[in-house]
Amino acid sequence: MEVLFCISSLVAILSTVMVITRLNPVHALLYLVVSFMSVAMIFLSLGAPFMAVLEVIVYAGAIIVLFIFVTMMLNLGKETAEQERNWLKPRVWVGPSLLAAVLLAEMIILLTKGQPGSMQVTVVDPKKVALSLYGEYIIALELVGFLMIAGIVGAAHIGKHRKKTFHRFLEDEAETEQQLKADYHDVHTG
Amino acid sequence: MMSIQVSAVLIVAAILFVLGFIGVLTRKNILFMLISVEIMLNAAGLAFVAASAKWQQADGQVMFLFILAMAAAEVSVGLALVLQIYHQYKTLDIEKLNALKDE
Fold it and tell me: What residue intervals traverse the membrane (chain B) (predicted)?
């Protein structure tokens, strides 16, 4: 099982590296699916089967589908990949990556310095999670409901596409109508 | 009964978080930045589940559920913003979206 954990975390790290280096958004999203799947495998090997299922359903299902919808609507194609290639010059990414790598090295040193603790993996079953969720965390759960409503309303409001132009058949008609209205106004106000 | 080093799981979570962080810092496309934020949230959730497995309590998994809900709400609003930005500016380059920049 230790081996299972090692393999899935290796896959997760590799696929995440691929996600942040791809030029085409769709390729990045496909690698992101692999990354989420392997994180779900890690959850399974940590004894959290319900979280693994939710990871696959919500992350790899819903969130990726949203991203793919938007990528398709934006119609990002070859020129976007070309643009990304121009943006991803080494002098752009070397500095931030090195600084972040220093932080990572510090964190790894800190994590390995402490007394080595190994954990016995036992499955925390969904029943325990549900009892805790609807017991002591009930307020937080209701707040999450508020958050979801806010997300839905916000997305619907922000994403509303106000149509500024008329259909090409209606465009002339609208213009003449406006002209007529202006003339009428002029005549009647002197 | 199997046993996994606690620090190994936390190191994997830290590596994933830093990868997402590098993505946010280096990419100039808003879509890729949103993807990287998702990776970072996922890494944080991994740390919570690891803590839940360490002490065999359900609290960490409950926190992961909350992170999941927050990520879903965040990504829906963020993608709506991306669509609106693309309609208005015809680009996703963050260097071009500098209307709030102090001259």
Answer: 6-25, 30-51, 63-86
